[in-house]
Amino acid sequence: MLFNSLSFAVFVPVIFSIYWALHRHNLNYQNVVILIASYVFYGWWDWRFLALIFVSSIVDFIVGLQLEKASSLSFRKFLLAISLLVNLGLLGYFKYCGFFIESFVNLLHQLDMQANNLALQIILPVGISFYTFQTLSYTIDVYRRKMHATKNPIAFFAFVSFFPQLVAGPIERAQSLLPQFERKRTFDINKANDGLRQILWGLFKKVVIADNLASHVDFVFGNYLELSGIALGLGTLYFAIQIYCDFSGYSDIAIGVAKLFGFRLMRNFAFPYFSRNIAEFWRRWHISLSTWFRDYVFIPLGGSRVTRTRHIWNVMLTFAISGLWHGSNWNFVVWGALHGFYYVIFLLVKGKKSSTQLMSGAKSENPALPSLRELSQIGITFSMTLFAWIFFRADSVEHALQFVRHMVTHSWLDDPGSTQPLLFIAILLIIDWIQARKHHSLQIGWMPAWARWAAYSTLVAIMFAYGGDKHVPFIYFQF
Fold first, then answer.
1. Number of Cβ within a 10 Å radius of residue 361
2. Which residue of 38, 215, 257, 394 has the smallest Cβ count within 10 Å?
């Protein structure tokens, strides 16, 4: 069930009405509504994969209870290993089995050894990377004694499958989201109104900007051998904006819908393309994933409190793994490694103290008007991310390298192709810059009612007039 579908537009009001009609009753009644709604929402794609969510939920619920009672360190490690084996085993099989088999066969061919191609045609369950990391945060934190195990199976199952953020995040921590299922929730009209505004802004970014850019991006990356250098450059820019509007749009809708039901989800994007260095970019882009890798991969590896050589290794390994998380293809690994390389350069230039900002929760605020120095820093950082996006969007590493080669060697003075999307991109960036100190760009509750409703009406009218292909899925569904 897509957020930008008629079925979802009917689904949410129905669940909302039933959910709040039960608010005076036992809290479990509301959680049951959320649980059923979440399973219906996920089963809309393929009901068979509901078994995977159920298995992850039941295993981690039982493991959590046992971890709470266990005192033996060896037994606790054994319990944690069960959770890791089940969750990462399912993720590995469905997402990476075919990739590793194909890579192994290709390696044998490179060594002039014969091997049958045993690549498997395995359907990737939507959102498995997201809910796997979410439920793992629970067992790891219970193992670390950072939280107590819940004894409420309904609350836990609802936490794992919470439909607004089930298939593409934000990846919520158990310490933050699970307690919200265990305490009474009251309807807050102000939060609900802000949630509706955030939903509207997310839909606008997805339907008007991302979906319209999709056809341009597909054409450029599908026909790069025949296009000019400037057309390839514009195609790369279009993809950068497409993936930002597509993914941050999903996050805005998810966060906004959660507010309607009295839940608070973490912020996932903080205007990342205004970042002045690569460390700041990763404090602003896909925040729930970058902080997850910080806490559960980078820090356990030793973080920055090690030798410089080991620190660099930890950074590169963390980024490479995060790249692989995005997809079972070597171009994603290269994309992650590129960002790791960018960060290592930042580490060497700025020093160890500044480099730890990547793994901290702090973020800087842009002034109303940037200085020339800040503008140049933003431009350099954005250019670096643009180059890396080529490897992310390409079908393979070879495809990406050919794309770069043609972009550099072909003329930048020829016809650039369609430049109409630049107008929408400019409007988006101006609005985002003005609202850079807000949590989302339509956070305009301070404006007079007539101005707010004029803005809402304008956005809705533009969506109906300029909405793109309604069948373009959210990009991160493939991960």
1. 9
2. 215
Residue 194 backbone phi and psi in degrees, to 5: -65, -35
Helix (H) or strand (E) holding 74: helix 73-91
399 catalytic per annotation: no
CA distances (Å), origin 409, targets 216, 217, 394, 397: 21, 20, 18, 18
Rounded to whole angstroms, how far apart are CA atoms 2 and 243?
Answer: 17
First CA to last CA across the chain, in angstroms? 16
Place of tokens 């009917």: 10
Q: Which of 29, 403, 431, 460 is nearest to 221 (CA)?
A: 403
CA separation for the pair 265, 251 (Å, rounded):
9
Q: Which residue has the tokens 């490897």?
A: 391
Domain range list for the chain: 6-186, 195-276+394-479, 278-363
Q: In angstroms, how far apart are the furthest CA atoms of the chain?
A: 72
Q: List, in order, residues 6 or more apart from 321 with CB less than 8 Å away.
A: 293, 297, 336
> What is the Cα–Cα distance from 33 to 24, expressed in whole angstroms?
14
Model pLDDT, residue 285: 96
Using CA of residue 456, residue 458, residue 461, residue 467, what is the dihedral sign? negative
Of 216, 286, 311, 326, which residue is the catalytic one?
A: 326
Rounded to an integer, what distance in angstroms lies between the CA atom of residue 360 and that of residue 419?
39
The C-alpha atoms of residue 397 and residue 336 are separated, in whole angstroms, by 13
pTM score: 0.91
pLDDT averaged over every residue in the chain:
89
What gap in Å lies between CA 15 and CA 451, rounded to an integer? Answer: 31
pLDDT over 50 at 66, yes or no: yes
Alpha-carbon distance of 199 to 251, in angstroms, equals 9
The packing angle between helices 308-326 and 330-350, to 10°, is: 150
Instruction: State how far the Cα of 360 lies from the Cα of 140, in Å rounded to an integer.
Output: 20
Residue 332, pLDDT above cutoff 80: yes
In 10 A of CB 88, how many CB atoms?
A: 14
Percent of the chain with pLDDT over 70: 90
User: 428 is written with which tokens?
Assistant: 């988006």
CA-CA distance, 427 to 423, in Å (whole number)? 6
Note whether 258 and 158 are within 8 A (CB): no
Kindly provide the residue ranges of all beta strands, DSSP E only, lying in 26-86, ordered along the sequence. none
C-alpha span between 249 and 243 (Å, rounded): 9
Amino acid at residue number 257: V
Half-sphere exposure in the Cβ direction for 430 (13 Å, CA): 6
Report the alpha-carbon distance of residue 299 to residue 296 in Å, rounded: 7
Nearby residues of 203 by Cβ (< 8 Å), 6 or more positions away: 3, 4, 249, 253, 463
